[in-house]
What we know:
The complex is a heterodimer of chains A (153) and B (403). With 153 residues, chain A is mainly α. Chain A has helices spanning 12-35, 37-40, 42-74, 80-102, 118-152. Chain A has a domain at 77-153. Helix content of chain A is 78%, strand content 0%. Chain A starts with 11 loop residues before the first helix and ends with a helix. The model of chain A has no long low-confidence stretch (mean pLDDT 94). In chain B, strands 2-1-10-5-6 form a five-stranded mixed β-sheet. In chain B, strands 3, 4, 7, 8 and 9 form a five-stranded antiparallel β-sheet that branches. Chain B is an alpha+beta fold and 403 residues long.
Amino acid sequence: xxxxxxxxxxxxxxxxxxxxxxxxxxxxxxxxxxxxxxxxxxxxxxxxxxxxxxxxxxxxxxxxxxxxxxxxxxxxxxxxxxxxxxxxxxxxxxxxxxxxxxxxxxxxxxxxxxxxxxxxxxxxxxxxxxxxxxxxxxxxxxxxxxxxxxxxx
Amino acid sequence: xxxxxxxxxxxxxxxxxxxxxxxxxxxxxxxxxxxxxxxxxxxxxxxxxxxxxxxxxxxxxxxxxxxxxxxxxxxxxxxxxxxxxxxxxxxxxxxxxxxxxxxxxxxxxxxxxxxxxxxxxxxxxxxxxxxxxxxxxxxxxxxxxxxxxxxxxxxxxxxxxxxxxxxxxxxxxxxxxxxxxxxxxxxxxxxxxxxxxxxxxxxxxxxxxxxxxxxxxxxxxxxxxxxxxxxxxxxxxxxxxxxxxxxxxxxxxxxxxxxxxxxxxxxxxxxxxxxxxxxxxxxxxxxxxxxxxxxxxxxxxxxxxxxxxxxxxxxxxxxxxxxxxxxxxxxxxxxxxxxxxxxxxxxxxxxxxxxxxxxxxxxxxxxxxxxxxxxxxxxxxxxxxxxxxxxxxxxxxxxxxxx
Lengths: 153, 403
């Protein structure tokens, strides 16, 4: 804690400037939601915005921490960075793919909309991601062995 | 139950975050990337709203013809690619969620309060944007308006947050990264969570940080490639999550609103179809489809560029709108409202400003790639003009009202 009553990474002057410039913009958005209430449905919109933060903080990130904690114990430490990248890509792909795979938006009258097999596409993308992760690990391992052998001589 | 003080509890929770990546330097790098990504999405998004709903003080330009397909493609691809960045950033700063006391001063309370519209707003923007591209609407509000106003709220909160953190970000990114390992992450003083400790005593090794940031960037790249093919056609075969495929649709072009969906099938096929041109200053004209075909025909290669991020080009043939307006005795210096046969719907009409009316490529198209328009592409006649959002390329045109 600093004497200013702010965290060490927060600048008092910067925050003041940020509030001076940002609050009018934020207020303009709130005003827009209110004026356009017939189409923005403010109460429902507020539930979505707050709900998104709550679900992220209490469900998504803790779940990611749990997956990371588990995976880290199963994976050798030198492989961890690449595996972590693979897990992030897989998770993000799965989240984005979900409504496509479920096909909520499909319209029988319009076959040009959502024309792909998104389940198969997701599987293919995940396979590619882990193939890349595997290749990175193999290359790193070969290099590391080369270095070790070099040291022995 | 033993009496544990909230401060001790918060510190003990803080200690559970073992990764050295819960640190200022990693947060700063991700913050800079997110600032750029949200800035790009905000500017392109406001541009799209100016295109669809121009205020009186703004004249949306007719040229360059392909501008909107670029700005809107960038908007959707950038927004999708932002998801891993956003999740990574929220993971890095997660230890600061539990702080004791929750606010150290009024100003600190204000700073933290602004994080709710920032975090909730940012997540809402990427979730609602992705759902809209998937045509999934698990809510009752009107997506474009909710997304638009939420963006202003989020950007306002982002400006507050950027102001608060810009100094620390600059300092951290200018100072050299440590080269030695700090050992396991441990909080500094007992009233501090790891994020708040000086970066020189707690944090990741440069190698671990670099590997983490490269992983995040790679995940963003994967999402960009997985979705961009609807507008960047060479990526089509890799874009397993794209809403569209180039070339898939009637006459090789994707369709947004179908004739069945718009309830215009009978009206569009009726032999009684007439194009009406009217307006206070115009002499009222009625043209049959044969009359339209008898007018001088012009060709233009223009994209349909959807707000949902896909776009596809076609060769259109038809009558220039400025020639039609001239038939009604009006020069091309006036705005024109283009109305559809559609009985209802938010997008049943669109506006052409004088610049767009005067443009030689603004056509009432009768043909696409040498064939009579498919009814889903707007048979008997549709509007096509340069640099316009797809929803404003009105189909099944029945009336031109000169303003």
